[in-house]
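Training component of the fellowship. As part of building independent skills, the fellow (R.M.) carried out the full modelling exercise for a liganded target. The chosen ligand was SN-glycerol-3-phosphate. The inputs are recorded below so that the supervisory panel can assess the work.
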Amino acid sequence: MKKSLIAGLACLSLSVTAAAPYAVFAHPIQNMATENGQSTLRPLTPDVAVIAHRGASAYGPEHTLAAYKQAMTMKADYVEFDLQMTKDGQLIAMHDETLSRTTNAKEIYPDRAPWRVKDFTLEEISRLDAGSWFNKAYPDKAKTEYVGQHVPTLEEAIEFVKQHGNGKVGLYMETKAPNVYPGMEEKVIEILKKTNVLNDEKLFLESFSEESLRKLRTLAPNVKLIQLYTGSMLAGKDVYQEMKRISEYAAGVGPSKELVVPKLMEAAHQNKLLVHPWTVNAQEDMVSLLSLGVDGEFTNNPDQLDDLLKKPFISHGVASGDITDSSAILWARTNGDAGVQFEISTDSNFKSKSIVKTSHADEEHDYTVNVEVNGLKPDTTYYYRAHAVSSKYTVNGSFKTAPEENSLKPMTMVWGGDTGGQGEIPPYKSFKAMSALNPDFFLFSGDTIYADNKTPAVPNPPSETVEDFWAKYKENRTDAGLRSLLQKTGTFAIWDDHEVINDFSGPSQPLTPTGLRAFKNYWPISEERSQSDKLYHKYSWGNTMDMIILNNRGYRSPNTQADGPDKTMLGEEQLKWLEQQLLESDAKVKLIATSVPISVPTGKTNSRDGWANADQINPNDPTGYETEFKKISDFIIERGIKNVFFVTTDVHFAEVIKYDANKDGKTDYNELISGPIGAVKINPGTLDPTFGPEKLYAEGNFFNFGVFKVDPANKQATVEIQDENGKTHFTHTFQLED
Ligand code: G3P
Ligand code: CA
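Fellow's submitted model of the complex:
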């Protein structure tokens, strides 16, 4: 049954959304319409196989004709047989080397322990009941027809599938314990010839034993072979070398499902190896593996996978973002054109009245949707659930609204960035540690993807087509930790350079419009923040904190331009807006969310990318953006703006700095830096002294994120730097000024 999964990837809408004002000067690259992009995180063919593991073994006794029948009724593409060999050399379908778990051998032959298959003839085994154990083990699924089910021979099982499969159901069989049964491979091929299925397209032979597969290859060179893997078999091996090596004899791999990560997908698919993980029974796991681009799944619940594959479903989780005290943006992605419905309620069981929002996932947006929910109550946890209208598969989420205006409630946020660069790809660990803190919200401080770095989603960077950029976001959403954090925590995402290309300046970078389009597609960004592509905006958490989100890329002058009055990072309009926000804010804390640091040198000599010109390293470096930052620094000092914290990532180490820019012995503002979450780890260096920085803490060479808590009652703000395991490496409490 054809189940095309890659529909979601085939879109090629070349129109760029409303030209970003700062992109006026850019000549959008014509998307080089490569058919479906270059990602290796998608099936090798449109067909994703439903492989009924031991038959529909969640519903009937494994390896019985009854369980095989159910598998075919449930539209499985393949029925899987594990093979054992009897004393008289007959092949039977059975998982274990012994008869005791799945038959009544102990009753019928009480004195023949340990009831090894190889100690019994086929005739003796044919007297066994291979179904009643299931009724005892699963009374809620018991059926009278299971009583007396017999152990099928391979030949019988093949004929049964041929008879009931309408020529559509394929065969998938495993040589189990081939070292116990000499000649097993020859017997398998003999029966495949006898039953006339040896040349069937839909036939796979699988084994954990490479030796057995190589023997089968010698006996039947054209049969597709699947090399199975447990964790211990792959441990310590270079997966790229291993996949290259086995592609010599195998058509695919069958890894235990926890082994399936982007690296394995890339290693397998670049060697044209199918990936069929086992055993995948929960729809959430099915979806997670499908988002990695697997080519099929072994499952005890073929109906659950068929149900998913036949219609578009929520494929990459949900998220909420740009939360206020009365509104939120909800985000979801499907894997095909479909209506999407969100239900929002304060009741996690959705029994009480819910708000319902719908939207349509279309190709133009890579099937992502953003809906705005208004009229929410402040300081309230909201639960939501989303599903593609045509699909039953539902994903749940939650978020907290900001406290009401003028309230002074304690607040805990987490921030982090730099995810997916310099060879680091999912799985990441930090997101799980963040979730464990149950924060009020998450600030994703840029480099949410590395569009210009080589990863399985874009093996030949930089990303240039919108499909490539989209593939990068999907790649990071394959991370279960990130998906889970986004599902239950409101998120404010900002971009930095790698959402487009290293150290880019918006107006002069041709890739800006395409990168921006994909960034807005993949994050829950409010209309008011994304209109005319501003991306800068202020969000309040009551009167505890105002978070002033900057856009450090969209309006900036080229990095190479010599610093001076006409060089800008923010653009005149945004700079004015920032000063106005600082002036008007009466919040206890003013947090400025910026994607670049103040005094840590970044970028290159004569093309500095942060504010600093790093003249402590190269006294003659004319670049950097210090002229503009001095305006901001002076404004804060002259206007007496209190409790200002610049929060960023970008530099790939953690550092906490206080600034005395006017050298009066009093701190004028602070800077909190964390990261990376998943990119190259760097060690801290010297700071540009221009604005009077003093290091309170600096540590590198580890994955980390930041926690920022404001306790208005005690006039305190506390920063913590935690590593990817949630261990605190540094904590410091700032006394807040009135
Ligand atoms: O054959 C794939 C998978 O079934 C391997 O594990 O033990 O269930 O045969 P097992
Ligand atoms: Ca098996």
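The panel noted the following from the submitted structure. Residues 419 and 678 are 4 Å apart (CA to CA). The first helix runs from residue 65 to 73.
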